[in-house]
Every structure is written in C-alpha cells, then in structure tokens.
C-alpha cells in the first residue's frame, strides 16, 4: 500500500502524470525481487517512478549531450509509427582519431517493449562513462581510443505502454498486425475484466485442460504429466474475452512485432511476434541501417531477456537453457494455433518451402545446401568463456531473471551475420537465496507434502523471492463470472514486475555494468605497426621489413566472421609506386585474421629507391583501427 506521504517524497522534477498513481503499486513486486541481494528498504514506492518515459528519456539524453559536447553526441536514427525518435548516443572523445576510424562497442537495450529496465541500465552505463572520464584512467583511455554507440531504447512505442493506466506487459511495438490471420488487425486485445488496472491471467476449470495446480505452491500452475499419474484440470488464457468469436482469447492485441524477433538470424518464420518478414519494422531497420553503415563496430552488447554472459555457451557452442515464467508461457500456448487460420495445409506449406503458422521451426522447411550456423564456432568459444567469467566476476550476477530463447534476436545477428563477438544479458540478476528457498521447499528428501518430486520451477523461485521480501507482486486468484466461459479465476504475476528491477538496483549495478562496458572496449583488436627495419643493399635497392601486431585481446576477426565473410581482411600497404617493387610481399597485402595478445604478422619488401626517401606504411583493420608509420630510406 502506497501512502500519500511516500508519494510526496518524490522530487517534483521526477513526478509523473497523475494517471500513474494507479500504476505505482503494480511495480512493487519487481522492487522486492532484489531486496535480499542489496538490502533495499521495503518501501520502494519512490523507485519505479524514476523510470523514464519517452519524453523524460529524450530530455535525459539531450542533457547528456549538452553537458558533454566533447564526449557525447545524440542523433535520431529513425521514427517509430507513433512518431517517437529512435535515439542513438555516440560516446567518445571527439578529438584525435575520428570516431568512425576507431574500434567501437555497440550497446543496445529495450528491444522488447516490456523490458524498460534495460533502457535504464543503458542510461546508467552512459552516465558512468561520462561521469568518470575525468577521474578514472580506464574510462578516459577507453573514450580516447575506442568509442561506444548506445541505443538505449530501441522500442519506444512498446516501452511507453508501461506508463499507461492499464498495465498490459506486452513486448511488441505499435505496428498493426493480423496475429490470427483473419484479415483484421488488433481486434481481439486482452481486457481488464476485473477492473484492477492489470492484464493478468484466467484459469478455467476444464477436465480436458493441460494444467494443474502446482503441488509446491497453490498459486502456481504446472503442466500435468500423465506418466506420473497427473491429470490436467485447468486451461489458462490471458484475461479478456473472445471479441472476434474465433475460439481464441485475446490473440490479436494492439501492435504485433517483438523487435528482438525481427532480425535475420534464426528468424522465426510465421511465429507470433516475428513481424511480416525479417527487418520489417522501423525500429529494426533503424538499428540495422546504422550498424551496416559503421563497420568499425567490433563488439555488440545487448541488455535484454537473452543471456550468454551470466552463463557462457557450453563446449558445443550452445546457450544455456532459458528459464521463463511458466504462467505466461501457458497463456501464450493457448494462442499457438491462432495464426494458422486460412493457411495452407502442412504438406502444401512444405511443397512451397513455407513454415507453419503460429508454431513450426525457426526457418522454412525444405531447401538444401549448407544450413546457417546456430552455435558459437569452436575457435571463438574461449573468447566467450573468458568474457563471461569476467562479467560474473565484475557484476556478481550468478542467477539470471526470467529469460527467453533467442530467435531472430539482434545479438544473434551481431555474431552470425555481422561477424563480431556479440553478447546479451539482462544486466541484473536474482540472488542465490531465491533458488535456495525454492529448493528447501521440496524437502530434504526431494518431496513436498503431496509427494511431488518435481524440481521447483522458475515461477516458484520468483514467488518465494517475493514472499521473502514482503512484497505483493502476485495478484491472488479471485473468482469471476466470465460472459462465455462461466466460472473462472483471474490472477497471476502482475505485469512488468518480474522483468524490471527497481531503480535502486540499477543504481547499485551501474558501476558494475559500466566497468564491464569499459572492460569489453579494452579487449577489442588493436592493430599497430610494432617494428620496422630498413636494409640498404646498395645500388638503390632497399629491403623493408615490418611486423604488424594485434595488441588487443580479441582477434581482428572472429572465426565465424571469416567464415561468413562479413569482416574485411586486414590491409597492409606500402606507399610506393608499383614499378618500384622488386620482390617480396605485395604492395598491398591482406590477411583474414590476426589473433590478439601481441600476435604478429611479418612482411618484407625489396624495392628500388633513393636515400632519404620517406615511405608511408599503413595497416587498416576494420575492427582493429588504423596505424601509419613513415619509413626513411638510409
């Protein structure tokens, strides 16, 4: 319960639209999640309003740029359907080497509309870099020699739904989409039947249903397993009615594309949220156009619900299994067939090389030839392992919040198509206490009072965590008479809470995420001409020797970057006329990749020249910078 006194503690500059008073209690559960880890006061009513709406985000970014003209530059990369700018902030000392010629890290967040906390993490990282430039040697060196490109909120239309009176928790943008393939768009959205300001779930008694009450926690549900003698007694839907009478409940909400399912790699053809086609949205196109135009981007870091940092890829290059919220997954599963309305049969789809509507594989069936890689290349694994270990060391995060399995995600594009090391992380985590409490509930013999030997679900860990923090983050199931389903119960996890940490946690994590961003920038390939030698053979004949070194940790191209041909070979060029070259290396030489940590590549030219001539030697690495030395013939 939030009192007027607690609300009055908000600074007047941070007050929100009065409509948000009804929204504030909704977020209390999220704040509670991190209480055990960071000893945050239980009264967190002042925390969530510190999240930035679109207008406030814009003002914040413009303030950064105005206060730091040498270090920060803001530009719009496009506009959403709702008319909002998709902001990109460039961070780097503008004096010295041009920003476009430096290795850079791209950091992007809030692809999913409901993951607004990730944009706050990105903002806190920007603030860390700017605030510490003058006092922190590592930050100064990074901004003087490398650069950062930030997309703090890729999906501003989707994020703005978090600041609306009705909390829906949807992740998509505002583009109209015919989710159920019936020729109409956005005609069957969820409705707040019980008028509590939340879109939660309906559990409906159903003898042919797939779900049963979780024996570990009566608030939660699990899928019944007939092999264990379990029978389903409920069906689960999103809260609302079947407005279009097609047998599906709330399958065609306003908007329809999850931006982080709209990119080219493992694109989930014909699945909900994927969009009409790859890069069909203004938001994904803005990001992609920007990235393609800036080939100096040498690493990608995404804040979102996918992870390869808290848990590194395994020895096969596979990501750890994602743990999501079952209650949400069960409701979403009720819509899995909705997109198949009016589609060809499966056999016809396969004949034409198409996929299944609503479900199906992540790529069209049929076709031959080599299939795209979906796991990290063996030669690149050690880099991911090393960087993941450092991330955990710096942040202390060991248990991720709710995650999703990436398909069509931007960080996948970054590695598999763009060819650079690409990472994704929520940017915050659950405390071990959440997992420990869930384990203890199963009993020392691995069974609760009902005899269940099931492993506690993520939902159980989340619910126990909320309970321990004394936060009401779960809407209790309450009876409701539905106009067509009859007696149902409405309840479940409140929207946004499980995926958005309180601002106090973001503040706590800011120096840790900032330090990791700086660390990542120090790993980028750093190519230089380490050694030159001139030998005079007499008669105007000279031998020039040079060694090109990669002083960074990462190679000039990942193994997969070479395979996909997405990273240009490194060029070494001697500035002489072609006819002056007698033998040895080519006037302009290329090599695909040079390992880091001081690895060198040797070159040697036999040329004609005159004593005193000065010859330019240049090395250009697309992801590792440029170095130029002048060689004098003596």
Work out the radius of gyration: 28 Å
Helix content: 25-40%
CATH class membership of the largest domain:
Alpha Beta
How many DSSP helices?
16
Number of strands: 20
Largest sheet: 6 strands, mixed
Write the layout of secondary structure elements.
Elements: H1 4-8, H2 28-33, H3 35-38, H4 54-67, E1 72-79, E2 85-91, E3 104-109, H5 116-132, H6 137-145, E4 147-151, H7 156-160, E5 201-205, E6 211-213, E7 221-223, E8 234-238, H8 282-293, E9 297-303, H9 326-333, H10 346-351, H11 378-395, H12 410-417, E10 422-425, H13 432-441, H14 458-469, E11 474-482, E12 486-493, H15 503-522, E13 527-538, E14 541-550, H16 559-564, E15 570-574, E16 581-584, E17 588-591, E18 599-608, E19 614-621, E20 625-632
Parallel strand pairs: 3-4, 3-9, 9-10
Antiparallel strand pairs: 1-2, 2-4, 5-8, 5-12, 6-7, 11-12, 13-14, 14-18, 15-17, 15-19, 16-18, 19-20
Helix pairs in contact: 5-15, 11-15, 13-14
Give an overview in words.
The chain is an alpha+beta fold and 634 residues long. It has two domains: 53-498 and 509-524, Zn peptidases (Aminopeptidase, 3-Layer(aba) Sandwich); 527-632, Immunoglobulin-like (Sandwich), CATH 2.60.40. The chain has 16 helices and 20 strands. It has helices at 4-8, 28-33, 35-38, 54-67, 116-132, 137-145, 156-160, 282-293, 326-333, 346-351, 378-395, 410-417, 432-441, 458-469, 503-522, 559-564; strands at residues 72-79, 85-91, 104-109, 147-151, 201-205, 211-213, 221-223, 234-238, 297-303, 422-425, 474-482, 486-493, 527-538, 541-550, 570-574, 581-584, 588-591, 599-608, 614-621, 625-632. The strands form five sheets. A six-stranded mixed beta sheet has the order 1-2-4-3-9-10, with helices on both faces. Strands 8-5-12-11 form a four-stranded antiparallel beta sheet. It has a four-stranded antiparallel beta sheet with strand order 13-14-18-16, with no helix packed on it.
């Amino acid at each position: 319960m939030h009192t007027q006194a607690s609300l009055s503690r908000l600074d007047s500059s941070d007050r929100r639209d009065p409509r948000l008073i009804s929204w504030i209690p909704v977020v209390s559960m999220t704040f509670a999640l991190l209480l055990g880890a960071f000893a945050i006061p239980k009264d967190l009513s002042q925390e969530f309003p510190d999240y930035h709406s679109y207008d406030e985000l814009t003002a914040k970014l413009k303030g950064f740029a105005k206060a730091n003209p040498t270090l920060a530059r803001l530009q719009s990369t496009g506009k959403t359907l709702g008319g909002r700018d998709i902001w990109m902030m460039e961070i780097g000392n503008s004096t010295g080497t041009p920003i476009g010629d430096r290795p850079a890290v791209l950091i992007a967040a809030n692809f999913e509309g409901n993951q607004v906390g990730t944009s706050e993490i990105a903002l806190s990282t920007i603030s860390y870099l700017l605030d510490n430039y003058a006092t922190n040697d590592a930050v100064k060196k990074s901004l003087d020699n490398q650069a950062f490109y930030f997309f703090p909120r890729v999906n501003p239309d989707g994020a703005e739904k978090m600041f609306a009176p009705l909390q829906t928790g949807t992740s998509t943008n505002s583009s109209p989409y015919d989710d159920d393939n019936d020729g109409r768009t956005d005609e069957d959205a969820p409705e707040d039947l019980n008028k509590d300001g939340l879109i939660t779930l309906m559990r409906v008694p159903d003898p042919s249903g797939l779900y049963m009450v979780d024996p570990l926690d009566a608030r939660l549900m699990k899928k019944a397993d007939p092999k264990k003698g379990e029978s389903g007694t409920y069906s689960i839907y999103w809260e609302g009615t079947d407005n279009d009478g097609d047998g599906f409940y709330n399958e065609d909400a306003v908007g329809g594309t999850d931006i982080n399912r709209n990119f080219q790699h493992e694109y989930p053809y014909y699945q909900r949220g994927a969009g009409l086609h790859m890069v069909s949205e203004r938001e994904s196109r803005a990001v992609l156009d920007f990235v393609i135009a800036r080939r100096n981007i040498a690493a990608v870091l995404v804040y979102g619900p996918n992870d390869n940092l808290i848990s590194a890829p395994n020895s096969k290059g596979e990501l750890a299994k994602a743990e999501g919220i079952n209650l949400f997954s069960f409701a979403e599963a009720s819509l899995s067939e909705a997109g198949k309305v009016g589609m060809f049969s499966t056999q016809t789809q396969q004949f034409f090389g198409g996929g299944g509507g609503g479900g199906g594989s992540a790529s069209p069936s049929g076709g031959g030839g080599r299939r795209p890689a979906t796991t990290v290349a063996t030669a690149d694994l050690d880099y991911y392992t090393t960087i993941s270990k450092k991330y955990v060391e710096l942040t202390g995060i060991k248990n991720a919040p709710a995650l999703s399995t990436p398909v069509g995600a931007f960080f996948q594009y970054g590695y598999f198509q763009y060819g650079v090391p690409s990472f994704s992380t929520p940017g915050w985590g659950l405390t071990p206490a959440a997992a420990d409490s869930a384990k203890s509930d199963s009993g020392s013999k691995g069974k609760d009072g009902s005899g269940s030997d099931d492993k506690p679900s993520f939902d159980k860990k989340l619910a126990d965590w909320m309970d321990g923090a004394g936060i009401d983050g779960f809407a209790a199931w309450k009876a409701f008479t539905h106009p067509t389903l009859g007696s149902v119960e409405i309840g479940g996890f409140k929207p946004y809470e499980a995926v958005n940490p309180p601002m106090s946690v973001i503040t706590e994590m800011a120096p840790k995420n900032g330090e990791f961003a700086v660390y990542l920038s120090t790993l980028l390939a750093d190519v230089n001409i380490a050694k030159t030698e001139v030998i005079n053979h007499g008669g105007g004949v000279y031998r020039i020797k040079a060694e090109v070194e990669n002083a960074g940790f990462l190679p000039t191209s990942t193994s997969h970057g070479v395979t996909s041909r997405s990273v240009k070979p490194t060029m070494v060029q001697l500035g002489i006329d072609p006819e002056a070259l007698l033998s040895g290396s080519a006037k302009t030489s290329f090599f695909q990749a040079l390992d880091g940590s001081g690895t060198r590549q040797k070159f040697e030219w036999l040329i004609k020249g005159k004593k005193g001539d000065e010859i330019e030697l240049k090395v250009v690495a697309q992801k590792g910078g440029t170095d130029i030395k002048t060689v004098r013939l003596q």
